[in-house]
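The protein record reproduced below.
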Amino acid sequence: QVQLVESGGGLVQAGGSLRLSCAASGRTFSSIAMGWFRQAPGKEREFVAAISRGGGSTDYADSVKGRFTISRDNAKNTVYLQMNSLKPDDTAVYYCAADRTYSDTYYSRNGATYEYWGQGTQVTVSS
């Protein structure tokens, strides 16, 4: 079992930055790949970024590539999403998710493969 708690959301002007954090507990953090997803009102949940359990492999949605950075600190059981150059289209509830894996390089864009989810944190970008 893995418990995930996101923090760091808020209201920011377009062009600004936020850093989201997701603290994990309940299972060896270094054995799980992590992902960030988001869901805007009236839209489907979408993939944002993912990172392998060791942190050596990452993946980003095209819409955030070059602006967002996913990272993790296994000593602190925490994954981060640094979001720069924010746009109004980035407004959504952001969720972190955990995916158990035996592979050091595995990560996934598919939300269905993630077994554990946080409660979400709201990010609002004003124009």
Q: What stands out?
A: The mean pLDDT is 95. The first strand starts at residue 3 and ends at 7.
